[in-house]
Design a protein that fits this description.
Elements: E1 21-30, E2 33-43, E3 48-52, H1 59-67, E4 74-79, E5 82-83, E6 94-97, H2 109-119, H3 124-137, H4 153-165, E7 171-175, H5 183-200, E8 203-208, H6 211-217, E9 220-225, E10 228-233, H7 235-240, H8 245-250, E11 255-264, E12 268-273, E13 278-283, E14 293-298, E15 304-306, E16 316-326, E17 330-336, E18 342-348, E19 363-367, E20 374-377
Parallel strand pairs: 3-8, 3-9, 6-7, 7-8
Antiparallel strand pairs: 1-2, 1-4, 4-5, 9-10, 11-12, 11-14, 12-13, 14-20, 15-19, 16-17, 16-19, 17-18
Helix pairs in contact: 2-3, 2-4, 3-4
Length: 378
């Protein structure tokens, strides 16, 4: 008999691995406003973990609590098993990289990176060795004598990163680190940042409102709303299996139909939804009783489109194409159903726009697979 296949288990899936960062029932009040509400998180060594949410959701307040710039009203923060809740910022094994980079304009790249090490009083040879290692890591040895104003935005971002990691913190906090970069440079820098993080092995916590950034870079992420954690998981899990309407609509685009369960079996349900103008068959896990109000979510890329009617009446509806959004690699079709609801279907642009047989005001059939439906409680 062949030996069993060894599968890599992520640290958060292994009960024998203890979390490196533990946030236990943290709350923070500013007067009568509760910016962070009873948040608990476990983050593991070497993770690149993202806090994702809209403005005012509490993600930056949580970052400031981790950095020690704010004191929690309740709860505890532990790093590597040590409670640091009441430690001042300068005593914490934590560094932070700000959105503005905050480089010293009168110092060279070398001296900017060396500044924190000099403040610690390390020997000159150790400082030089650590700075040169950092410069090699960010591939900027040749720019060591330049001032920040002589660098591009992406180069300044890398210098700020090197200055943050050169002190070898246990935790590095990144506050919207790529927000100042243009789209193309931001996409390039995302991969650079991930590669550097993997090489140095420092645990990163990234705060961002950019969904694409969080999805691209994170090992896991937490979606925040009104100071609370709505869902924690790997990017693909949150995208494919959102646990609420809020998360489903916040991450990417989503078609959502409200309805009532009219049939329930062990592996599927059938939902009657006047909005969809067809019975919806959805595979599921768990009990969903007949008569329950429920929402069915379907991603636009899972919705197929044809001018010819497919067989069967479940998971198949028809409507009129009202808008076509051309995005280069894909086009998004906005189709109005008889109920007045709009549904999106995103299709790859395998043909030129002029060569496709679906145009504005065409009647089309939209259909999807049962396994691509996500059931959400109302």
């Amino acid at each position: 008999m062949p030996p069993p296949i060894k599968r890599n288990i992520e640290p958060w899936q292994d009960p024998n691995i203890k979390p490196y960062i533990q946030i236990e029932s943290i709350s923070k009040k500013y007067g009568s406003t509760e910016a962070v509400r009873n948040v608990s998180l476990s983050i593991y060594k070497g993770e690149l973990f993202s806090l994702l949410g809209g403005s005012g959701c509490g993600k930056t307040s949580l970052l400031r609590l981790l950095a020690g710039f704010e004191t929690p009203s309740y709860g505890h923060i532990l790093i590597d098993g040590i409670d640091i809740t009441k430690w001042p910022p300068y005593e914490r094994p934590v560094n932070i990289m700000f959105q503005s980079y905050a480089l010293f304009p009168h110092m060279t790249v070398y001296n900017n990176i060396a500044f924190g090490l000099k403040q610690e009083g390390l020997a000159k040879n150790i400082i030089h060795e650590r700075v040169m290692e950092a410069l090699e890591l960010i591939q900027m040895v040749q720019f060591s004598d330049r001032k920040p104003q002589a660098l591009s935005g992406g180069q300044r971002q890398r210098v700020a990163l090197a200055r943050s990691i050169v002190k070898q913190p246990k935790l590095l906090l990144l506050d919207e680190p790529l927000a100042a970069l243009d789209k193309r440079l931001r996409e390039q820098t995302q991969f650079e940042l991930v590669n550097i993080q993997e090489r140095v092995g420092i645990t990163f916590i990234l705060v961002t409102h950019d969904q694409e950034e969080a999805m691209t870079m994170s090992s896991r992420m937490a979606i925040m709303k009104e100071g609370q954690i709505m869902q924690v998981g790997a990017p693909h899990d949150i995208y494919e299996f959102p646990n609420s309407k809020f998360v489903a609509e916040f991450i990417g685009s989503m078609n959502i139909f409200d309805g009532v369960v009219i049939e329930e079996e062990e592996d599927h349900v059938v939902v009657d939804s006047p909005e969809a103008n067809c019975p919806i068959l959805a595979t599921h896990v768990g009990a969903t009783p007949i008569g329950a109000n429920i929402s069915v979510a379907i991603r636009p890329e899972k919705v197929m489109m044809s001018k010819t009617q497919p067989s069967g009446n479940r998971n198949c509806t028809k409507g009129i194409v009202r808008e076509i959004a051309y995005l280069g690699d894909i086009s998004i079709y906005y189709v109005e159903l008889p109920s007045g609801k709009y549904i999106q279907s995103s299709l790859p642009n395998l043909l030129r726009l002029s060569e496709r047989n679906v145009k504005w005001d065409d009647e089309v059939y939209l259909f999807w697979r049962a396994e691509n439906c996500v059931l959400l409680s109302v």
